[in-house]
Structures are given as structure tokens and as C-alpha cells.
Amino acid sequence: MNGVRTLLRRVAAADVPALRRESVDAATLAAAAEIVSAVRERGAAAVREYAERFDGLSPAAPLVVERTALWAAVAALPVAQRTLLERTADRIRRFAEAQRAALRPVEVPVPGGVAGHTLAPHERAGCYAPGGRYPLPSSVLMTAVTARVAGVREVWVASPRPTTVTLAAAGIAGADALLAAGGAQAIAALAYGAGPVPACDVVVGPGNRWVTAAKQLVAGCVAIDMLAGPSELVVLADRSADAGLVAADLLAQAEHDPSALPVLVTTDAALAESVERELARQLGELPTAAIARAALANGFVVVCRDLGEALGVCDRLAPEHLELHVTDAAATASRVGHYGGLFIGAGSAEVFGDYGAGPNHVLPTGGTARSVGGLSVFTFLRVRTWLRVDAPEAELVEDAAALARLEGLEAHARSAERRRPPQ
Q1: CA distance 350 to 104
Q2: Domain region containing 288
Q3: What is the dihedral of CA 37, 40, 45, 49, to 10 degrees?
Q4: Could you give the angle at which helices 183-192 and 209-218 cross, rounded to 10 degrees?
Q5: 367 phi-psi bin (left φ>0, alpha ψ -120 to 50, beta other)
Q6: How far is the C-alpha of 366 from the C-alpha of 348, rounded, in Å?
Q7: 175 and 48 in one domain?
Q8: pTM over 0.90
Q9: CATH number, domain at 261?
Q10: CB-CB neighbours of 347 under 10 Å
């Protein structure tokens, strides 16, 4: 690239594979299974042992932080930090309320009666927020606020090494309590219960491979949001894009984790070169450069012959985050098929999604955006159907009986025929 040392390797459009990264490796899954089993069998004692071993929990520190302590943390925050959390929570809440308002009970006439559905929230939700390399109070707000808007009666947060800001975020979000543990032990506690921690009906939130492995293991017993892996960003850009802005967004994604995936898909080879130069320049001024540089090694740039080919590459990847830095971003948005979160136009930084513009930042990764959406109010709701047939009509009775006999289920057929209307 004209002598520029590349930070993003070049990949031809035809060679870009569908993104199907395994959420967790077999070794981690096996090790997590031992932790989950221990917590299920020994409860809070096992959670504490693992929290002291892996999460740095002091033997004298409480495993559970009660609501009064969460609100004490809120009171201890500087006013600027408290109002920041409150503004962010409010934006998340308003978006979630709009989502909830979009859902309605349904009633449909059927022969001789009515069918329908109702919407019911889960009773208990467990919301995980990472607390490792970077504590993420934003994830506390994203998960717990959304659960409350859905109508969840009891909301627990789990986060290892919780800072005052994390505790305060849990208080502002309306959590009932916080479990000061992380990893597989926290997920197992939320799923099966452990001492004062009740068994939850749904467990959500982003986390590392241990969290993901545990969510996979408990998914048969509780609902989960998704199995998320390392974070991803694809920037789709044409010649109108600002190279400095594109580079800044790629680096923002790259600093998450050495395993993060930053990708540039562009229709302009000159822009790709400009972005490379900007990446090198901005890395030199970035405190998290070591992490970002490692993540850039996972990433790549694809130079496409036209927008149609570029859109095909984006849909093949089905990334967690997709930014559109193109001339007519609104029109292009309608042509994209698969993504976790879409950011339309150069002003719509993915970072705004991370930090509470409104839509949730817990999103599918690894190409699973082809089959699942991000965390939302819907994650905490159950759609339950009902049927009331007061005067079964002949059509319904005869069709049910006929289908039953097609399947060889005579008792089913006779059950339907017992409700045949009088002649």
C-alpha cells in the first residue's frame, strides 16, 4: 500500500468467509461445567470459593450487596457522575418503553370461538455485567433497566470486583441486589440459585468466554439472551468517508479486547490507504494501543468493486455492529440484511450505541445476527397463547379429527368429535 505498513490485512471480497466464530472452545466449556456443577450442588459456599479465587473477593467482603448499599453507592458518587448515569438510564428506559408499547395482546376469531396471545414478563432476571479489564456500568444499565421496563418483578445484577460506579448503576437501574462474583460461578448462581441469590428465569448480559460457556450450559434450564463472543465492528465506507473518523471508530472497537474484530469494507482503495495511515497515527496517541494493536491483527480490509459487492460482504459477515459511512446512508440502510446493530451515517458512532443513545448494546456476534436480535424488552417477555371455543363449529371439529387420523392418533380424533355441534 504505497509503502504504508499495514495494520489491517487485505482480503479479497470473494475470500471473505461467513463469520461463524465458535462462542466458546471445548476446553473452556469443560472447565466451566465443573464450576457450574459445583455451584449447583454446593450453592453459595462454592460461589464464594470461586469468587475469592478468581474474582479477588475478600473473605471479609459480602458476596451479596443489598439494595440499601446500592443506593449508598449512588449517594457517594460525585453529582456529575450520578447525573450521567441517570441521563443514560433515562434514554435506555425511554427506548425500551417504546419497544414495550409496540407489543399488544391479540385476539383472532376462530370457528366457534376466539384465540389470542398475552404478554407476560419473566418473574426474575439475572443481569451480568463484566468487571474485568474494564468495569462496565453501562452494561448494568442496558440489562437491568430494560428488565424493569419489561415488568420483571425481581432483578439481580452480577459483576465481579464491583466499583462504586457499578454499584450505583445497579441502584439507578432498579436492581434488587448485586452478586459480587463473575464468570461461570455467577451465571450458575443466577440460573440455579445460591444462598440468598434466587434462581432466575432468564439470564442475560455480555461477558468473557467463561460467562458464555456457563450460559451455554444453563440454557436448557433458564432462558438466555444469546451466546456472545468477542466484539465486532464492520465499517462500510465509500470515497465520501472521513478516514480519520473511520480509523477512530475501528480503534474504539479494537480497544475492547485483544480478540475484538475490526473490519473495513470499502469501495475506494485510496480510502483504505488513508485509513491505514490514520490508524498508525492515532495508535501513537492511544493509551490502550497495545490492546487495540492486537485486535487490529484479527481484522482486515476488503476493497470492493462497487457498493453491491460491498453489501454482499457485509451480509456474509453479519457483524455485531455495522456502520455506514457512505454518500446516501439512509438508502443503503434499506439494502443491508444482517447485523446486530446498524449505525446509519458518519454521525452515528457505534460508541453512541455503547453508551446509551437508546438501543441496547448487548448484541449478537459471530455471524449469529442472521438468526437472533440483540437484547431488548422482548428478551424479558413471554408470548403466551390462549384459546376459548364456546361453541365449536363443524369445520373446526372435522378438520381436527381428520388431521388426527392422518397422523394415526385416533384418541385425538375422538376427543375432537365429542365436541361436534348437534345436528
Answers
A1: 31
A2: 9-21+229-359
A3: 30
A4: 30
A5: left
A6: 23
A7: yes
A8: yes
A9: 3.40.50.1980
A10: 10
Nearest to 274 by CA among 311, 235, 245: 245
d(CA 76, CA 72): 6
The number of distinct structural domains making up the chain is 3
Look at residues 190, 129, 188, 196 and name the one whose alpha carbon lies nearest to residue 163. 129
**217: helix, strand or coil:** helix
Is 320 a residue of the active site? yes
Q: What is the DSSP string of 55-102?
A: S---TTS-SEEEHHHHHHHHHHS-HHHHHHHHHHHHHHHHHHHHHHHT
Per DSSP, the three-state class of 268 is: coil
Alpha carbon distances (Å) from 129 to 222, 322, 382, 410: 18, 23, 23, 52
By C-alpha distance, which of 233, 285, 281 is closest to 254? 233
Q: Which of left, alpha, beta for 205 (phi over 0: left; psi -120 to 50: alpha)?
A: left
pLDDT, tens only, 237-263: 999 999 999 999 999 999 999 999 999
* Spatial CA neighbour of 368 closest among 216, 249, 237: 216
Domain assignment present for residue 377? The answer is no
Residue 19 has pLDDT above 90, yes or no: no
Residue 16 Ramachandran class (φ > 0 left, ψ -120 to 50 alpha, else beta):
beta
Residue of 320, 325, 338, 361 marked active site: 320
Q: What are phi and psi of 408, to 5 degrees?
A: 80, 20
Residues 79 and 141 in one domain: yes
Question: Which residues, in sequence order, are CB contacts of 229 under 8 Å at separation 6+?
Answer: 21, 22, 23, 24, 209, 212, 259, 365, 366
Catalytic residue selected from 256, 321, 325, 338: 321
Does 380 reside within a domain?
A: no
Q: State which amino acid sits at residue 66.
A: E
Can you give the pLDDT at residue 1?
A: 47
CA distances to 24, 95, 158, 211 from 169, rounded to whole Å, are: 29, 18, 12, 21
Residues 91 and 176 in one domain: yes
Examine the pLDDT at 331 and tell me if it is beyond 70.
yes
State the residue for C-alpha cell 440483540.
374
* Residue 334: CB atoms within 10 Å: 7
Is 325 designated active site?
no
Considering 309, 334, 359, which residue would you say is the last residue of a domain? 359
